[in-house]
## 1
Amino acid sequence: MIEDKVMSKAEELNKRGIIFIQKKQGDEALKYFNRAIEADPNFKDAYYNKALVNLALEQVDKAIETIDNVLIKDPNEGEAYFEKGNIFFYYKNDVKAAVELYNKAMYFGIKNEAIYYNMAQCMEATGEREDAIKWLDRVIIIDNKSVEAMMKKAEILIDMRRYEDAINCYDGILRIQADNEGAYHFKAVLLGETNKVEQAFETLKSAEEILGKRELLEFDKCLLYEKEKDLEKALNCINSGIEIDDKNILYLSKKASLLILLQKIEEAKKVYDYMIEIAPEEMESYFSKASLLMLNKEYEEAFKLYETIIEKSDEENPYRINSYYYKALCLKSGNKLEEAKEAYEEAVGKYNLLIVKYPYDHQLHLLKANSLRDEEKYAEAEELYEYILDLNKNLAEVYLMRAKNRLGLGKENEARQDLKMALEMNEAFKKVIDLDEELSKLLA
């Protein structure tokens, strides 16, 4: 007959502490873990549990001190190095210290999926992606059904643009979990990105047969149809997604953009109105509708929306910051020139204040430069565009804006060069240029 093991006093106190963790009463839990340590200073579980509560109470340095007490008693305790490494990685954001501690933990015998996975994350954080994959492969060797490791490996492979290898990872995941929606999603996206559209549709069809209709998968189909320039089918898919969740702002926004491409402007306006109704605190919907009204030359209504954004949002909200400029542009486009002049001056003043706080934010400088350009202060604007490009020469939008400014300075050749540079970086700007009579003439 096997006798029940008698629980020691330290174990009993530790067990009580765990009960208080489950009750989310951290201070009470600490009391019992401390008593467990007093009862048996070599009872390591109490130290680890105490450190866990320290972290829950945001006492990070105390958690490290608690783990150090284990190492003082036993410098060869691998688990303690592992736990301390986790604190440095997840709470201190000190990757170098975490790697050193994980290496010590492995030296003293900790060799499992958890430490290999964490090493992979450390390698990824330091840009050592090949090494990260090697550590994840170790996880998968130990547990060939570790979906978490496979998903992380695929994510890193995507960052490395090794799309075929990533697709193989997702295939492996689907052999283990045939109902993994994320794997279907990412595989379909990658197939679409690599112009294997038919295979992408087949992947989504397989997903639907197992999972039924899912809003994410409908969104994926929408993007594929949009890529194929079949906007009506794209719209049907996004509508199917919205039927599942009619308050999904991302999907509603996509629907509005498709309606605009289909020249269904009034319907798009109604979608934006609905978005504003269900999420009145989200400024993106106001801004998107205002942009549409600007394109449709409904300047007064657009102006009201920019005013609303400025009134309702925080000072550093990006939509508010942009609205200073576009509010002035509305007035200028509506031929309210005196009011526009005041609005541009106000916008420049606002941007000056923000630039003091964020001197390297190119978007602030660009908005200020555009405001100066629209006021026909071409020389000042030119100097600012140059400064922005000195900060970062890879901003296609800035070349486009500077081209417009250079026309004001009578520098047609330089403007033409800027347009060519913008198009080299982003071919999509061709549509913008075609809509501008002055700019389109430069490329004729």
## 2
Amino acid sequence: MIPCDFIAPVETQNPIRDSLHHKILLANFLAQTEALMRGLTEDEVRFENKSADQLLIYHKTFRGNRPTNSFVLPRITPFTLGMLIAAYEHKIFVQGQIWDINSYDQFGVELGKQLAKAILPELDATKPVTTHDPSTNGLLNFINSNRKWTPKANK
């Protein structure tokens, strides 16, 4: 089981319609953490939907007691974002110490560095990239189609 982190600012950067959209986002932020804590039983699904068949009940039920962390910030600013990044860096360091691994010197990091060398020139591609797995290709192509910099000529 892996805990899930939820992060939300109290104030929005764009208060539109008396912050209605932000209030909806905050309601969903709070509701998701509550849902993961409570879960939904078969009896609750049946009570909610008297005609639910077993397949629907199977898909709508889930165990609760799922751990979450909720970070509520007054506002997202460079300072609060820096605090979050520092907190996650510290978390990684402490977990590494507990598990007796060097969180900042792993072979997986080295593999990532090697892959980055191949990806770097592809960030200047003018045609769709197809040299990686579908996920990486999709991300690269999205970045390339939305970038603001001028691609360097391929050598």
## 3
Amino acid sequence: MSGNGRDRTHNVLLEDGHGGTMATRYIGIRHRVKRTAEGEAKPTQVCVIVDGESTMYDLATETDELDWMLGRFPRSWRLAVKNQDEMLIEELKQSRQHHLNWKKIRKNQDQEELEATNFVEKVARAMCVLEIPDKVEGFEAGDQVCMTLGGSGDRFAFALSRRAEELGAGTKVMRVKPAVFKDVRERLQRNKDNDAGLLAEMHQHTNDLYLTERRDRDLIKLVEVWRNRIEAMKARIGSEQRLRSHLIGKIFCSEEGKYPEGAIEVQYEYQRSNDKVVSALEEEEKQREREVVKVLNGLDVYNELFKPVKGLGHLISARIIVAVGDIRRFATAAKLKAFIGAHVKRGGMYGEPIPRLQFPRKRSGEVANWQSDGRQAIYLLVDQFNRNPDSPWGLKLREYKVKFREKHGQKEPVKVRAGLVDAYRAVEQWFLEAGLEDSVMGYREIGSYETFKQWVDDGMHKLVYMKEAVEHRRIDIEPSSLVDINDLRSRIAALKPKDEGAMTIVYSDGHIHRMASQRTGTKFVEWLWREWTRFEERNKQVPKAA
């Protein structure tokens, strides 16, 4: 053990015939929140593998994580000795008071004997003896760390990566895609509680890892400054709400009855403009926004991909980048679309199993498990495309409006009774997928079940005619691409249209605008995944030697 009390026994010396070399330490870290809302303790788990031997550690607090990163996490304790540890104790008092541990003296211990050589004091009405770290553990030169991408471990990964650059000697912090890690865990049938050990093993046996470098730290820093901006905004809004509530109570609960002239809103704006707390919070919010802009301007991915897009400003860009995090987490564009809520799914409203295409939104009986901030950012972005109609993406939005208007309702809105709307949209979707143009389904109004049934029969007759024409080679279409008529009849029969409710407009101009906006947002996310993935491929480093 060295003079500073650091235990070096975990670095096993391997004899190879040419002199000794220090064995590589492979470290897997499963980062977790330290305590759940229910009070359940969930410490960060660390597994250190040296020469096939593994050791597990639990980091119960952020302070423990900091100690681990700096290589000073206590793994065992000893009694402080008089005339020997005074200088060390003074040093700990100045910088690491949490490394001074007062332990209660048991009744069967001789207090006078302890006081002869140890430090004994009365703490909280009990006599305690001072303990200090005996052996410490932590991050050191040459370590190979593996963590999953994204999530709560970003801050810890940032600190470890920065520390690795200081230590040098091949010290690396690697990260793996959560999807890849999950696949490996399921394939090996490992227990989730041993994720840290599996991560350490993966570092030794797979090359599907990514080195955490300066670009990754800049991205993590953006997440931090964006979080600070959101907290400042919420604090400002909360202060304004308290001020308004106080003003309303003051006005209505006045014993003198001197109610102010004019609207309450005027009084509120006057109070708000002169309130020092609100003014200070507004200034803080502006400062946080400036920090976001500064960090964002230093990101290569922003300058290369986001900045050239007209309508995509700093704050919307920050929302998207923070929501996505590391694009390498998403193996396909479909996974990113589902994560950010820009995908299209099949399903019915209110949990009804009507298999028609739908843009996801919060509905009764359905799970809304997308990233809400990212979805909101896409909504705000498409609104900017609409406000910039001559921009490339604005032109694409207008193009989709024209296509949807021609495709649905024969260029005009359709009136359908409310109880028939779901069934109408489902059947229309099936007809369009089967190859029918909307011109052959051109009913302007479907006000009863009989009209709906007639519309369905007309469409089915067209499909039967199309199938016969293909069979007699009057139409050059691949027969295998035709819909199964009997299967389609079964699906339509399973629907439950209701001849009730008021007449409602389907495919109004507003409806077409929303459909086009949603499609534009979906296409933008597809484009973003493709270009961002290419950007990462161009800038990636070889993560680890074979």
## 4
Amino acid sequence: MAGKVTLNRGNKLLTGSNLSRRQEPHGPARTRPGPAGIGSGRGRPRVSSGPKRRIVAESETVKQYVLTLSCPDRPGIVAAVSGLLAERGCNIVESQQFGDPETGTFFMRVQFGALPDTDPDELRGAFASLVPELGLDWKLHDLAERQRVLIMVSKGGHCLNDLLYRHRSGLLDIDVVAVASNHPDLRPLTQSHGIDYHHLPVGSGGKAAQEAEILALVEHYRADLVVLARYMQILSDDLCAKLPGRIINIHHSFLPSFKGARPYHQAHARGVKVIGATAHYVTADLDEGPIIEQEVARVDHAHSPEELVAVGRDVECLALARAVRWHAEHRVLLNGDRTVVFR
């Protein structure tokens, strides 16, 4: 069961858990803005005791945090979380939640503001106190700490160029710390943005030696995320296992159709009317990782394979950029082999 609430600026409850689809045309319910703990719609709050804090005023400088959590679904989850935040004077900016009826798992993302003197360790301790009762699997993210991203490419530069442009123009709030490739071709593009470029060919040491260099770069740059922006090498099971949920790939087809090489030529041979691209987390199973985003474009019989490739480049850029942004904003929660994406 997923509680859904909507507050107006006066913090009056407009709708509750019985919010109709006609009133909610754009996905999961959100609460924004308003003090925490009002209109949670999931039962009476049961929260740990904590120091009483004044409510954050709009005129004050605040620190922004995002709390993500999953747990077995039950009444009182939203009330417990929002009550805990209210006790500490935190102000909820945005709240989204989803209860998966198939697995009985509840997912929640809460963005909130806290006073500058709020101790994040005390917040973490407070959330940890809810674990025994609610069985929370939770993370607290400081939005001032941007995701550090290592991009990997081969020869195709369209996705890299798009990500670097969005990063440079402020459309993608990440830190691109370096670019690595098994080819030297995209060094000029990367260095024109003032970003380090590392050429990591698969040499005499084989794939294991090359992947050891990749892991060394991840550690050296303290990368939170690795983005495969048309990196045309299959990662080993060992590398995937060492970076679970931290590698995003863009696959140039609308998965699960047309896996493997030359998907646009496969699509042309089948006479498809829609082509697409899929951004997903990387797992040991090739092209089978949890899907984050997909984008499509309509085509027809007149498109040649080369024209399909050109159209496909555009949808690849869109799907990958969205997936990276949503991951960086902590909007993607893993749900088994699927994802919950709070857009």
